[in-house]
Amino acid sequence: MKIASTYVCAFLVVLFHAVGLWGFLHPEYVILFKRLVPFHLLLMLGLMIISHHDRNKYFWTFLLAAYTAGFVIELLGVNTGAIFGNYTYGTTLGPKFADIPLLIGVNWILVIYSTGVFMKEFKIKNHIIRALVGALLITTLDVLIEPVAIKFDYWSWENFEVPFQNYVGWFIFSYIMLRFFFLMKFHKTNFAAVILFVVQFIFFFLLNIKTV
Questions:
Q1: What is the pLDDT of residue 17?
Q2: Residue 96 near residue 89, CB atoms below 8 Å
Q3: Is 123 in a helix, a strand, or coil?
C-alpha cells in the first residue's frame, strides 16, 4: 500500500507539472494557470507529505522550520535588499503578509525536501559535501526559475536584472537548510520527491526555451 501510494503521488507530480507546462505555453490560458499556481504548490506539498512514510516529530519539525525560515528569509530579503538583492513579489504566488506571499515558505519546503531526498540517493556519507552539492543544484534550479518567475509575475527585480548576489544568497541559505534537513532524524527515501526534483528542472528548462 505504501509503495503504491508513493507511485501514485509520483504520477500526479508528473501529470500536474505537464498540465501546468501546457497551460503556460498557451497564451490564452496563462492568466488562468497563474491563478492556479498557489493551489499547485499546496498540492505538491500534500503529495510529498502523503508519499513520505515516516512522518515522525522530526519530519514535522523540519516542515515547520523550513516554512518559517523560508518566509523569514524572504521577509528580510524584500525589506533590506541585503540577502538576495532588491526585488518585490507580484501576484502569482497568491495572498501576502507584509508583502511576502504566504506560500513562499511552501516553495522552500518543496525545493529543500526534494533536493535533500535526491541527494540521499547518491549515498554521500559526508553531510557537508552532500549539502554543498545539493545547494549547488538548487542554485542551478534558480538560474532556470528566474526568467520564468519574472515573465509570469512571481517576482520582479530592480532594473530588471537578477544580481549575482541573489544566487549567492540562494546557495548559502540552501546549504544551511540542507544541513538542517540531513540532521533531522526521519526517513529520507521518497520516490515521489526524487521525481519532483527532476520534474522541476524539466519544467523550468522547457519554459525557458519556449517562452523566455
A1: 98
A2: yes
A3: coil
pTM: 0.96
C-alpha 176 chain-centroid distance: 15
Q: How far apart are CA 3 and CA 14, in angstroms?
A: 17
Instruction: Give the side-chain half-sphere CA count within 13 A for 195.
Output: 20
Residues 116, 59: contact at Cβ < 8 Å? no
First and final C-alpha spacing in the chain = 42
The answer for residues whose C-beta is within 8 angstroms of residue 73's C-beta and 6 or more apart is 83, 108, 173
Range of the domain at 22: 2-211
How many angstroms separate the CA atoms of 138 and 41, rounded? Answer: 17
Provide the domain count of the chain: 1
β-pair partners for 101:
96
DSSP state of 92: T
96-97 and 100-101: which strand pairing?
antiparallel
pLDDT of residue 125: 87
pLDDT for 2 equals: 64
- The residue length of the chain stands at 212
pLDDT of residue 1: 57
AA letter at 108? W
Amino acid identity for residue 1 in this structure: M
pLDDT of residue 160: 87
Burial of 88 (0-12, 13-18, 19+ CB in 10 A): exposed
Low-confidence ranges of the chain (pLDDT < 70): 1-2
